[in-house]
Recover the amino acids of this structure.
């Protein structure tokens, strides 16, 4: 939520700096995530001075350029100008050297002394669009010499607006602070309670004068859905552009001005948190506004041009013929909206049932400024007051005239909340004892009324606009929030009882794997299990999602890790080794939930250094990390090629027919979708399968051998279709107890080899743990291996 500091000052007066205000807002729970600057004209015309063109002649080296001299107040500048309308004796705005000229996107270029086609240029004579004054670029801006004085700052002739805008991360419970007025009220409560000095202007009902009468009426079909409803009829409106001050207010918080009527309703919304809706009164059949529901399946076209099918549960604003005009609290209809031709409006101000608005908003996937507030609960007792302010603005800005009395339905007043506060409970929660008079002072600043003082406590009346303060603990939180969390000192002594954790076998395995990966330079990440809607057949979708971005349970951990990678790469951290322990979800014949350990590598495997300048991640390095983990299971592993759309090349690792892990190079399409522009490699381990299959046998420790290993190498020429895994399995079948290790150290294809052949260079480590190996024993093993390779694969020995 954006809050303008200038706007805030309409309701609260204080001598505090913007930074201090931001700090105090954060302290009271309205966390300021950033402070941005707003300028009505980008750059505020800094460096622009009024100049007079003394001479103007054709550029000697360019047909479309002019060479001028310009007086900028005691100093004459040489300026090359490309405008067709530049001439001597003109008074013009001049950007001197060092001035920054901004475009519409906020980017700028700096004016520098330069040579243009061989002629010196010490500035720029500006057009209106270059200064941000309009979109006109027909030529330079020629000023009235009777009004503008040469040498003066051009900015002095304009009422420039400079503002600072707070970006507040508003939590959903703070319905009272969804406006500038609400933020000012909360800030004043803190400042006044802490003797920091502030003056607060409380909103009051505006006295209105009306002309003639009207024949409009309202009918509320269900007062539970619509507890309070008001309407005003305003005629003789002129729908035009808003005045500059109103446009600046709207633009400062990131909105685009539309016209004076719409801008006024937006201004009221962000000023006081009360959404309003303006209907073209001449389009309301029977001059009657009916608030109720419409039959299920009714088609209704909203302001965004989309035709929607109603569920039958939405609160609908209808005309006298029961034709829907607006989804109450969410979005208006296309056919009843205000246009430039509108001269008479019906202005609505209401309090709608928050649950009904929230359901309608979710059902239609519409999240508007109005629904954001209505579904959390606006102030039901300020509805009329805010309407009078809106009518007054329509009178002052749009020339409107209020016709007749305000229409209102408020059969049952919404009462304040009754809460009992016990001092003993307050002291227990806070850990300190606050003076009782200070408590009452804080409550008064929060507009919480003390009804009665009882033994060791207070009976309180909490205003209805504080929908989040309905219990004793809520009141305690409010007192602490305004008193100041920073005033609660940490205790010098803390007592607690240690509890021995009872981890099951899977927890032990997961923790061991996590520590192993951390020791190898990996970082653990944790991502949300909810993700955006994707075209996944077996995805689990939420019935009532918080948003479209959080509407589906994830079906893979890969997308989250790629998003983590993209975030880091974009911030100049391209070397990534991540892992995540988390669950994935699918819907087949029944719902399925599985836990996985996922690993992602991209960029360099190790940091660059003088000894090892480059060590890029690849499939085989990731496989080495994966096998380091799987070896802990003490299982016999099998490998086979895997077809998976997520990978361009992939391998599946199994044991006893069950999948233990998948590993591969991430497919380019996925990398592109995730905005990752470098190769990435991914592996995922099925934790439940690993846990169920892992061997429970204890590992045995043996002495370090006293005798040396003997290494022998073989270079085998085989068909290209033969894999190393096949050679490895044949070698493993050798019955000799002396064969301890088998390794592949080179693969070669190409020049000097027969077509369709390749060479594998393998090493074999042999050891007799009881005595030194003799040549005959070594030769016996190697000959047996050679015969096996020749028999199984037709292998040939290379010299």
């Amino acid at each position: 939520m954006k809050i303008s500091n200038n706007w805030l000052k309409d309701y609260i007066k204080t001598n505090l700096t913007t930074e201090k205000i931001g700090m105090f807002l954060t302290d009271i729970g309205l966390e300021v995530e950033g402070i941005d600057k707003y300028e009505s004209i980008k750059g505020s015309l800094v460096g622009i001075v009024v100049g007079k063109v003394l001479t103007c002649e054709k550029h000697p080296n360019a047909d479309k350029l002019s060479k001028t001299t310009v007086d900028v107040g005691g100093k004459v500048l040489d300026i090359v100008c490309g405008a067709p309308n530049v001439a001597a004796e003109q008074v013009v705005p001049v950007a001197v050297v060092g001035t920054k000229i901004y475009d519409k996107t906020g980017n700028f270029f700096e004016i520098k002394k330069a040579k243009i086609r061989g002629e010196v240029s010490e500035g720029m004579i500006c057009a209106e669009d270059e200064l941000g004054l309009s979109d006109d670029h027909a030529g330079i801006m020629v000023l009235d010499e009777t009004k503008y004085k040469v040498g003066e700052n051009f900015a002095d002739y304009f009422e420039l607006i400079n503002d600072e805008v707070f970006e507040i991360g508003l939590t959903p419970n703070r319905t009272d602070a969804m406006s500038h007025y609400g933020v000012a009220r909360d800030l004043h409560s803190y400042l006044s309670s802490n003797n920091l000095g502030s003056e607060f202007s409380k909103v009051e009902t505006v006295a209105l004068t009306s002309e003639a009468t009207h024949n409009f009426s309202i009918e509320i079909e269900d007062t539970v859905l619509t507890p309070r409803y008001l309407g005003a009829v305003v005629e003789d409106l002129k729908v035009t552009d808003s005045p500059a001050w109103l446009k600046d207010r709207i633009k400062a918080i990131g909105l685009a001005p539309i016209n004076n009527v719409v801008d006024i309703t937006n201004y009221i919304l962000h000023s006081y948190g009360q959404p309003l809706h303006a209907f073209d009164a001449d389009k309301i059949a029977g001059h009657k506004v009916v608030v109720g529901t419409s039959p299920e399946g009714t088609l209704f076209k909203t302001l965004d041009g989309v035709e929607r099918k109603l569920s039958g549960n939405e609160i609908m604003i209808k005309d006298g013929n029961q034709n829907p005009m607006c989804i109450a609290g969410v979005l208006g209809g296309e056919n009843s909206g205000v246009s430039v031709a509108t001269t008479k409006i019906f202005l609505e101000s209401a309090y709608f049932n928050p649950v009904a608005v929230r359901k309608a908003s979710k059902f239609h996937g519409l999240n508007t400024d109005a629904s954001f507030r209505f579904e959390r609960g606006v102030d039901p007792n300020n509805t009329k007051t805010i309407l009078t302010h809106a009518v007054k603005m329509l009178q002052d800005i749009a020339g409107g005239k209020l016709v007749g009395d305000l229409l209102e339905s408020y059969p049952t007043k919404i009462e304040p909340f009754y809460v009992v506060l016990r001092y003993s409970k307050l002291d227990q929660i806070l850990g300190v004892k606050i003076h009782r008079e200070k408590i009452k002072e804080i409550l008064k600043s929060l507009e919480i009324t003390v009804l009665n003082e009882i033994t060791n406590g207070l009976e309180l009346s909490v205003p209805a606009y504080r929908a989040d303060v309905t219990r004793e603990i809520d009141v305690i939180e409010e007192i602490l929030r305004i008193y100041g969390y920073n005033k609660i000192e940490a205790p010098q002594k803390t007592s607690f009882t240690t509890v021995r954790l009872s981890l099951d076998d899977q927890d032990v395995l997961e923790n061991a794997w996590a520590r192993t990966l951390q020791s190898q330079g990996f970082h653990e990440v944790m991502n949300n299990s909810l993700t955006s809607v994707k075209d996944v057949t077996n995805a689990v979708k939420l019935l009532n999602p918080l948003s479209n971005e959080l509407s589906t349970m994830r079906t893979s951990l890969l997308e989250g890790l790629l998003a983590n990678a993209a975030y880091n790469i974009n911030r100049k951290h391209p070397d990534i080794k991540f892992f995540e322990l988390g669950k994935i979800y699918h819907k087949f014949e029944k719902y399925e939930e599985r836990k996985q350990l996922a690993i992602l590598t991209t960029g360099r495997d190790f940091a660059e250094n003088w000894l090892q300048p480059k060590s890029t991640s690849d499939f085989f390095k990731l496989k080495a990390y994966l096998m380091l983990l799987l070896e802990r299971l003490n299982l016999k592993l099998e490998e086979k090629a895997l077809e998976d759309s997520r990978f361009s090349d992939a391998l599946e690792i199994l044991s006893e027919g069950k999948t233990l892990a998948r590993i591969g190079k991430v497919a380019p399409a996925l990398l592109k979708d995730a905005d990752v522009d470098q190769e990435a490699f991914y592996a995922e381990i099925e934790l439940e399968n690993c846990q169920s299959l892992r061997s429970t046998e204890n590992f045995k420790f043996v002495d370090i051998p006293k005798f040396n290993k003997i290494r022998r190498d073989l270079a085998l020429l085989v068909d290209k279709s033969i894999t190393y895994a096949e050679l490895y399995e044949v070698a493993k079948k050798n019955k000799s107890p002396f064969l301890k290790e088998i390794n592949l150290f080179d693969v070669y294809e190409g020049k000097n080899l027969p077509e369709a052949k390749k060479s594998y260079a393998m090493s074999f480590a042999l050891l007799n743990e009881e005595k030194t190996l003799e040549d005959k024993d070594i030769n016996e093993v190697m000959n047996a291996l050679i015969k096996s390779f020749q028999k199984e694969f037709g292998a040939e020995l290379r010299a």
